[in-house]
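hiii, so i know i said id send this last week but things got crazy w the move. better late than never?? heres the sequnce for the chain we talked about at the cafe, plus the structure i predicted for it. fair warning i was half asleep when i ran it
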Amino acid sequence: MRLKGLFVFLVSAALATVASAQTKISGTLQCAKPGLSQAVEVGDEPGHVITLGKVGCTWSKTFEMAGSTSKDGYSIATGEIRSGKSTESGIHAGTMANGDKYFVRFRGNGTAAKDGSGSMDGTWSFTSGTGKLKGLTGKGTYKTTTLADGTGTVQVEGDYKTP
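okay and structure toks below
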């Protein structure tokens, strides 16, 4: 009876590990100045703006998913800046070295200085992928630092799972 109980426990533990197997990832994106950047004054108070931007990025510290390394991508985001505080939400479309693509939805809050510099902390989640990343799921956090010239660095951490 002891052996049967031990066997059941080991099989259950193995299945639980497989069912919840998430792989940790982390990396660093270096982003150029936005290729598209629009800011529209709201008019209710000085400096209150709604923003839209698109920026290209490359992975300076890559991560691996499904046997390939992260390469580059772009983010499209909308945001609001008011009284030095900022919010953003958007989509990141990334490409792996083998050509597979992944798509991420992100949302964050931060600070914005008058010179254009700032920082942002937020969360992200995978929405889809192609090739070996089809059915991709996962989520994590990010921290962005933007310089006055519009360039920035994004630290990304999280986990993923493929079917």
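btw The helical segments are 2-19. thought thatd interest u
miss u guys!!
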